[in-house]
Amino acid sequence: MTIKRLFRGAATVGSMTLISRILGFVRDMVIARLFGASAEADAFFVAFKIPNFFRRLTAEGAFSQAFVPVLTDVRHKEGEGATHILLDAVWTRLSLFLLALTLIGMLLAEPIMLLFAPGFSNDARLPIAIDMLRITFPYLLLISLTAMLAAVLNSYSRYWEPAFNPVWLNVAMIAAAWLLAPVLDVPAMSLAWGVLVAGFIQLAWVWWALTPVGWHPRFTLASHEGVGRVLRNMAPALLGVSVAQINLLVSTILASFLIAGSVSWLYYADRLMEFPVGVFGVALATVVLPSLSQARAESDWDRYNQTLDFALRLIWVVGLPATVALALLSEPLMLTLFGYGAFTSADALSSAQALTAYGVGLLGFLAVKVLAPAFYAREQMKIPVQVSVVALVVNLVLALALIQPLAHIGLALAVSTAALVNAGLLWWALRRKGFYTPIVGWMRFLLQSGFAVLVMAVSLWWLQQALLSDWTLASGWERSGALLLLVLVGMLSYAIALLLFGMRRRHWH
């Protein structure tokens, strides 16, 4: 894959993901307005986080990172016939494993809930959360199978269909919140049913999208040697690629011991922080892994290095201004998007504090999306695992140290610090192993982007003071207009400053 095709693929995934994220904000605005930061909302966010956590570890995390390099290698060396045998064998084994895991999760919903949210013990949130978990846990089966089919589509350079797929989750949850909530004894239970319905829709969507590829899953007893390679690579990849999710889960566990609303505050902050990560970081990672895997299969190490260098420059040029913007606009963002109805201004300000803390680690979250696949494309699993263990320890130690003085803000800050440590150690390991050599021009690139971000920050700070003196007292329309102007000014000032300081696309490699 050339750099031009890499950029085009990332743009395709990013644009589709942008649609999903915008609908995701609409979904969260509906949830915030209807349920606020209530006990019911806390219960749902934990019940939804648990299957999502397992899904990101098994399907989108360890499985995808272990599966895509093997799939690419088999296609390159053995052809489509052997590839279909591998796909059927993997589908069969993954389906059986996920079915067993889902049944166990539903049967053991209460102890699992107490494990993930021990603060709910002897709390009114516990029985609600358990009922919700039994409804949402099958989503693990459905979305994990969806993730496998999406990985196949991506390996065939079909990006838009899997990237668009999360839209159906947002649509289903919005519809469930508006239509089911008024008729249920526990209104927030509608969200759990919406998640389950979305799982079926999402699986059907990617199944349909496979038609041009010429393969659809079928169960088989046949095997392929690639299955063993996938399984061997999966175990170490569990920690290596999913450390961010584990760290966020630790935050949820500890937040369950804090005052009611803390889980919700962290959830909404995480949702906003995930906007640049999802739209840009995940989009870039989606196309980078197949590209790096193909370069490795062909032993084209110059292309491997060039692809990685280009991806890291994109991460920096987008992640740095996003970090500064999140810090400067955390309160306007939270108040404008969520500060209505049951979600009070005080709730929005508490979430804004967590968002600022999450933003500190944004570059780390983004960089890991590229740095970890750089190892997995080579089927090198040991180093990411070692780095992940260090990051997990850093997060746990800091979370325990900061929860008392800073409450939920300390938990978010611990996650951010761990992400930076994770990314820094992965980058250092790539350099030490000789897997990556920065291409000439990085110093000029860093200075140009640094000065441009400074121009953007000054522009945002001055304009924010001039537009609204107190965002909590402004109407929704006033907030929306002011925020839109701030976003436009921030983007334009940064882009113009980059051009004025001499940055051009041809300088990137």
Would you mind describing this structure in some detail?
- The chain has helices at residues 3-35, 39-107, 109-116, 125-136, 138-155, 160-164, 166-179, 189-209, 225-255, 262-297, 301-338, 345-359, 362-376, 382-406, 408-433, 442-467, 476-500.
- Helix content is 82%, strand content 0%.
- Helix 1 runs parallel beside helix 11 (301-338), helix 2 (39-107) crosses helix 5 (138-155) and helix 11 (301-338) runs antiparallel to helix 12 (345-359).
- With 509 residues, the chain is mainly alpha-helical.
- The chain has 17 helices and no strands.
- It folds into 2 domains: 3-439, no CATH class; 441-509.
- Helix/strand/pairing category: mainly alpha
Question: What is the number of independent domains?
Answer: 2
The stretches of 5 or more residues where confidence is low (pLDDT under 50) are none
Q: Overall mean pLDDT score?
A: 84
Query: In this structure, how is the largest beta sheet organized?
Result: none
The number of helical elements comes to 17
